[in-house]
Fold each of these.
Amino acid sequence: EADIYQTPRYLVIGTGKKITLECSQTMGHDKMYWYQQDPGMELHLIHYSYGVNSTEKGDLSSESTVSRIRTEHFPLTLESARPSHTSQYLCASSVLAGELFFGEGSRLTVL
Amino acid sequence: QKEVEQNSGPLSVPEGAIASLNCTYSDRVSQSFFWYRQYSGKSPELIMSIYSNGDKEDGRFTAQLNKASQYVSLLIRDSQPSDSATYLCAVNIDQTGANNLFFGTGTRLTVIP
């Protein structure tokens, strides 16, 4: 069973606030990912990491940033949230490419 | 054109029937293929992966891959109401550097008791 955790599960904040979505995994996976998913739409990769101190932007343009200081931890930060950031954010990890284990997600609403 | 195309459905089948979900992809250098199941309000869960042409069976699930025709399908035998979910097809493309995994928008399956 996958052990990957996201907090908070739900967050409602005002415009302009800084937020950090936490993601931790206990499986020792090198690869970690952040996806954004809106209803009825495909998952879009916004950031990924293939190991400590390695981060890359995905296909979807995003104003967020990530860090990977420890293997198990991959937080995502929005410096100034806007209503357009309202979405479901999914963290995932993997050993083999394509075989992802997802966290339960963080649903963000920006007012 | 999207990398991965799926019929969004909804697909409705009676309990006990075979559900057939299809996915086509656009890139001929795609190497590996995956099916994820996503229940409403939950995150995706990997249920099948297939790497070579032909069929791969796992319990009631069979994945079928035809690289020449660029499609991959998922068959669910003896469908149960608990199979009602959105099924996401994902394709891993062999390219260096950039993101390699592309998801379809998913097919919503409803199994009617």
Amino acid sequence: DVKVTQSSRYLVKRTGEKVFLECVQDMDHENMFWYRQDPGLGLRLIYFSYDVKMKEKGDIPEGYSVSREKKERFSLILESASTNQTSMYLCASSTEETQYFGPGTRLLVL
Amino acid sequence: QKEVEQNSGPLSVPEGAIASLNCTYSDRGSQSFFWYRQYSGKSPELIMSIYSNGDKEDGRFTAQLNKASQYVSLLIRDSQPSDSATYLCAVKKGTSYGKLTFGQGTILTVHP
């Protein structure tokens, strides 16, 4: 059974804090993704990675960075959290054809 | 023009009716098409994929693809209240490391 896990379901942070969101998959997938989801805007791709230490910007990378030191783990970093980064963050890993999503992290930045 | 657009919704249908969800895409190089279902507070899950023109049926779900018109749809027959969710259309280009472009989603409510 495929499994993608995220480090937290809910997170509350203060403006200016550095925030780490972690995602782990156990399917040996090459590709991993970070999205944010906001009402009316759908899923927007922040960054993706197609191999260890390889990453590419998605549609909205500003204010975010990522790290992929091991194949199974893909981290999203908010260098200095801002209130407009309050959102639902979804991680996914994929074969070439199918994406599997983690449960999501709902982040509130105060 | 958005790369992937879905009918705006929300869509409300009575139990037992057919729900029709529509999606258009702008990139003619798109090759793979997916429908994800997302229940409130949950993450998306894949329910259908389609790669060639025509219909693909899986139980009560039918996906339809027309590449000439750049149009993909999802029909849900005999809709049930448990089908109430947001449905996301996603499109993949030929070689893209599994990267998908999602529509904004259509909220479906099936009322008893």
